[in-house]
Write a structure and sequence with these properties.
The complex is a heterodimer of chains A (about 300) and B (about 300).
Chain A: H1 2-35, H2 40-45, H3 52-55, H4 63-75, H5 78-109, H6 115-125, H7 130-159, H8 172-197, H9 201-208, H10 213-224, H11 226-241, H12 245-250, H13 259-272, H14 276-311
Helix pairs in contact in A: 4-14, 5-8, 5-11, 5-13, 6-8, 8-11, 9-10, 11-14, 13-14
Chain B: H1 2-5, H2 11-45, E1 48-49, E2 57-58, H3 62-68, H4 74-104, H5 110-118, H6 125-136, H7 143-150, H8 162-190, H9 194-202, H10 207-218, H11 220-235, H12 239-244, H13 256-265, H14 270-300
Antiparallel strand pairs in B: 1-2
Classes of the chains: A mainly alpha (about 300), B mainly alpha (about 300).
Chain lengths: ~300, ~300
């Protein structure tokens, strides 16, 4: 009897640990969600209780929720940060997937002199930390801006349209260039491995049927590569949507800031003013997009992690 | 084989060369301009003293000598990086292994645990830092101090003040990273053929023995990958410290990344800051190569 009881105890304890950790993972986030429906006074009076919006639903109890989110979305320019993030991340993502799969396809499917060298070049990029590139890039951007101003400024002046100053600092284009370039090593590395696993016969067949190399790529290989491209897209989306350091260095103008930067600056102001209702609402707005993407695509995401790591 | 059937210099060869260049050119150009070139330039920058405005002055290895001199801020910073790598790292790895192993036993709700545990990983590091600022807050809002108040403590604890901050980051790191490693390890465990375990059970091996002699050795590659991820992440640690210290970390909380940021963008000591970034790169490189080598040798014993 003792033996059978003992056999029982181990799994039960382990299961209890899992449940405890489940609570530890989920509760803080739930707490942020429901607290965002309370006014700052209500938070102070009863920091951990459920908001009136849940305990006593009604027009009046919903008011703090509406107020917090209006303050965050409109008053603190969160809508602006959100749109900036959408612009920067979607443009970067499309460019990364396009350029990345082009390079990966050629590296996986063609034999030419220098192929191994180019492949190694991209693999080197996996080892280069953001911080190594950051400082020289900061000054390189100034030089490139001056240079572009000189080249493009002359014809503009000649046409009499006015003066033109090009700057890659404080510009979404500058940030997008960095994001694309920095995401390429991982994207190319993973997609090259993926394109290698695709059957070569389909490509041969398309070529024999008279489709050129370009058409073969866009109408046969790209669709075939979709599972791999989708996984890479999710990874890049999460990484770029949450990126902080490059944005911090290259965007100073508040109107151009992306969501993580905006969240950090709101957090400092709101803590200073002790406006906790605003703070909780801002945090929810910042978390929702990635949580939503995760909920919809979690199966693909976790499978992607395992594929990448098990092969690599 | 295909190559042999084609005449060299034929139309198709030229078309193909054109295709390769047109597809490889743009990505390689972008990558070389905005990653490789500045990365190479970093080594040059690290040999000068420069404030960003006046003429740079050549100092050779002077910046590196200043970095390792006694009393430099580099050494405390690197100690903080090591702390933030190994303390949360050890906890994360053990928890992730334990959870992966337990969930792998086909328990009810396995899918729910996997999905829920991974989920903090998709929240941005800035949002995670802010969430934990609220959890640790000394005002009435603070979740943890509220809990302590219920347990009878009258004075709130300042978890995020400089002296405590590194310890306060440990649970935060574990909270956000464990799920990722659990998913990684779980996949590795699912890849191990069931027949190995069946054979071991026939020989009377306990489940602890099975774990030690089958599961661990067969997922060694993935464990290596996990350790490399943790070390590289710990060396590059920036976001949470920077946000929790309101952009001005103190000497006791600087990591390599926050130190080089403040040297360059707050004190305009560009050569010195870049020298730190070069050291950071060399450490990432060394850590990756060494752990890959060590783990591979271990694995050959089986």
């Amino acid at each position: 009897m003792t033996a059978s009881a003992l056999r029982w105890v181990g799994p039960a304890v382990r299961y209890a640990c899992l449940i405890a950790y489940l609570v530890a993972v989920l509760f803080p986030v739930c707490w942020v969600f429901y607290t965002s429906a309370k006014s700052t006074q209500q938070i102070y009076r009863n920091p951990f209780g459920l908001p009136p919006a849940i305990t006593a639903p009604g027009r009046q109890s919903l008011q703090p929720l509406v107020e917090n989110y209006t303050k965050a979305w409109v008053g603190s320019r969160f809508s602006r940060y959100f749109i900036n993030s959408v612009i920067v991340v979607s443009t970067s993502l499309v460019s990364i997937l396009m350029l990345g799969s082009m390079a990966a396809y050629v590296l996986a499917r063609f034999h030419f002199r220098g192929r191994t060298f180019v492949h190694m070049l991209f693999i080197c990029g996996l080892l280069i930390p953001v911080q190594l590139v950051l400082i020289p890039l900061f000054f390189q951007f100034s030089d490139m801006g001056d240079w572009l101003t000189r080249i493009l400024g002359a014809p503009v002046r000649a046409l009499g349209i006015g003066d033109l100053t090009v700057s890659l600092h404080d510009s979404h284009i500058g940030l997008i260039l960095i994001y694309v370039a920095f995401s390429l090593p991982f994207t190319v590395f993973t997609l090259t491995a993926f394109f290698r696993t695709l059957p070569g016969e389909l490509r041969e067949a398309a070529l024999i049927d008279g489709a050129g190399e370009y058409r073969t790529f866009f109408s046969v290989m790209m669709p075939l590569g979709r599972p791999g491209i989708v996984t890479i897209a999710i990874f890049n989306f999460l990484g770029l949507w949450n990126e902080y350091l490059f944005g911090l260095v290259f965007l100073n103008d508040d109107r151009l800031k992306t969501l993580p930067l905006g969240l950090a600056s709101i957090s400092m102001q709101a803590q200073y003013k002790s406006d906790f209702g605003l703070l909780f609402a801002a945090l929810v707005i910042a978390m929702v997009p990635t949580i939503a993407v995760y909920m919809v695509l979690q199966e693909k995401l976790t499978r992607g992690i395992t594929l990448g790591a098990l092969k690599g | 084989m295909r190559r042999a059937t084609r005449k060299p210099g034929g139309d198709r060869d030229r078309n193909q060369a054109l295709f390769v260049v047109s597809f490889l050119g743009p990505p390689v150009a972008l990558y070389a301009t905005f990653v490789l070139w500045p990365a190479l330039n970093a080594f040059r920058y690290s040999l000068y003293r420069w404030d960003g405005l006046s003429e740079p002055a050549w100092v050779g290895l002077g910046n590196f000598r200043a970095i390792v001199a006694t009393g430099s801020e580099f050494l405390p910073a690197i100690r903080n990086n090591l702390f933030l790598t190994f303390v949360p790292g050890a906890l994360t790895l053990s928890l992730a292994l334990f959870f992966a192993y337990t969930v792998h036993q086909r328990i009810p709700g396995a899918r729910l645990f996997r999905i829920a545990f991974f989920f903090p990983n998709v929240i941005s590091s800035v949002a995670v830092a802010l969430l934990w600022i609220l959890i640790y807050s000394t005002t009435d809002v603070g979740l943890l101090n509220g809990l302590l108040r219920l347990l009878g403590r009258t004075e709130p604890i300042a978890f995020t003040e400089s002296g405590n901050l590194l310890w306060a980051i440990v649970p935060m790191s574990v909270w956000s990273a464990t799920g990722f490693f659990m998913v990684l390890f779980l996949a590795a465990m699912e890849n191990i053929p069931e027949t190995y375990y069946e054979a071991a059970r026939l020989d009377g091996a306990s489940s602890a023995a099975q774990f030690r002699h089958i599961t661990l050795p067969l997922m060694w590659d993935v464990l290596t990958t996990g350790v490399v991820f943790l070390i590289v992440g710990g060396l590059k640690f920036f976001d949470a410290i920077f946000v929790m210290e309101n952009g001005r970390p103190s000497k006791t909380t600087h990591t390599l990344a926050t130190l080089l940021y403040s040297k360059v963008f707050q004190e305009y000591n560009i050569g010195y800051g870049t020298a730190i970034s070069v050291m950071l790169f060399l450490l990432v490189l060394a850590a990756t190569l060494v752990s890959l080598r060590l783990m591979r040798r271990e694995r050959l014993e089986y």
